[in-house]
Amino acid sequence: MNQQKITLVAILLVLVTVVVLIVVWPGGAPPKAKYRVGITQFVTHPTLDEIRKGIESYFEARVKSGEIEFIFRNADADFSAASKIAQDFAAQDLHLIIPITTVSAQPVVKHCRSVPILFSGVTDPVGAGLVKSLEAPGGNVTGTSDLWPFAEQFAMMRRVVPEARSVGYLYNPGESQAEFALDQVRAAASGAGFRLVERQVDTTAVVRKTALDAAIVADVFYFGMDNTVGQAFDSLLKVCLEAKRPLFAGDATSVKKGALMCLGIDHTELGTQTARMAEQILFNGKKPGEIAVWRVKSGGLYYNNNAFREFGLELPDFVKKEGRDLASKSAEETP
Amino acid sequence: MSPSFLLFEDAVISGVLLGLSTCGLVVSLKLLNFPDLSIDGAFALGGAVTALALRSGAPPVACTLFATCAGAVSGLCVATLHCYLGIGKLMAGILMLGVLYSAALLMMGGANAGLIQFPSVFDLLEDFAGGPCGFLAPWGKMTVAVFPLAACLLILFWLLHTRLGVILRACGSNREALRACGIAPRPFEMCGMAIAGSLPALAGSLSAQNRGGADVSMGVGLILTALAAFLIGRALIKSALWLSRALFKTGNNLRMFDYYFSHAAAARLLFLSALTGAFVYQGILLLAIRWGLWGGGVRFMTAALIIVLLVVFRESVVRKEEGLL
Question: How far off is chain A from B316, nearest CA to CA, in Å?
């Protein structure tokens, strides 16, 4: 009995020591920098990390000289944590807050009314209620939007497959961005003179069937930003290869995996642009409300040479000249 | 190949996959009276093991066998949790779901593993194209798919007649009788769950090879689909039995269908129901997709269908104290 009590007390002591250490440790941090910038990210995700790295590498020299200090928080995909981080940032003495993704940006805009806010990686800033308009945001908020250049993407598809009439498009109506993306895709497809063959999927299990069904009428396929379809991307690609329907994508990752080409966003570039705007706010004294929300207009052109061969298509000259071949990269990354 | 033919081919292969999973469900739920919720996880595990093995350079057939064995191990784990660690049946399945999710993530090194550039069992008969059996070439994939299904069905049918099969059936229905005969039910329950786990894993392995990729979420909702398939099949077989009795005055006993524990023949009918239901379900799915009915409302429709089938084709002998369905 006594032994047990001693063990218990020992464990408690160790725990208390650990907690105290955790709390006290950052106390020895270097003195405050001139500019303190809070970055909050909703979840660890390759594209979001690229945005953050783009920002950080832009200011690398200034961080080293102690002029800027980044305070980074990750909500780890927890909605309530995202809100708590925003409140924590509001209580701190920050000069600028950069929330990455919509979910992180909303609580920051709500709680931090007196600090300049520069969101990044938000697809629909107006719809999310972050700014009133893209051109003149007003107030203390502006940022960069990662909305894809859909119209440009479909115009590019038109140049590669001039004779194609219809585009197959799969999406999960249960996803938060589905409706928004669908509207964009519809407008872009009709703008480029395609008939859109829309098909809904609810799980990855039916992607193959649904894609096959769409392939009966569709001449080419377009893969958008849908997560469910993205998880079953290999199914979609396999169907397209088997039925010889060229597959276009909206992001470079899919092109690495075997889609033909995309006019994609470079997320590092998005981060760099965000950093440029941060520079204007911090050092040039501009107010966020005066800076228009930046939108990607012409992304990098990426293509997959192997995919062109597998789909039996000839690589157009303009693609070869302007684009970057990602085919070799896929061999490195997927063993 | 034309998309229409590929769609048909996919429906047949999906029927086989769902049939295998449903047979696994029948073994656990009906034979052993063990509602195993980890069937979704076992399916994904099959895909993950296949991805791991294929990437390590194993031949596709070996990968499929590895995946099947992994499923058996997962079934054994569920049974161990219940039989030897005293955790409730439902809870054991739920816990195992979590374990299998992590295991699949770990094996694939991510949520998703592309397998398009790897060989698959479905390519085995591709050589037909040049040979004297060239006309078989387009049917190669379907032929390959039917093999494991036929093998599993034959093994199960044979098993039902062996001493092991009788004990397995008794495990689910009459454990007292087993104990009275001096047989401990638990080791046999373990054995039965291994069979029940291996079938969905085999299906998962084949599915990953057919779809060209494995995903941690590839099994989500499988238990509902398998249940729906089983109930559809049972309704059809029951109706057929009823019709044949009405038309030909044959003496088959409808009640026997639910007294599955006392007749190997009735247990066989359960597996046949699973199979019929799986193919009919995939047929319905095919039509739903063709007619553009697929979408957000499908889960509600599946649930509604299950409710109707459960009410209309109620088991004539309901074990009230543990009416699982």
Answer: 34
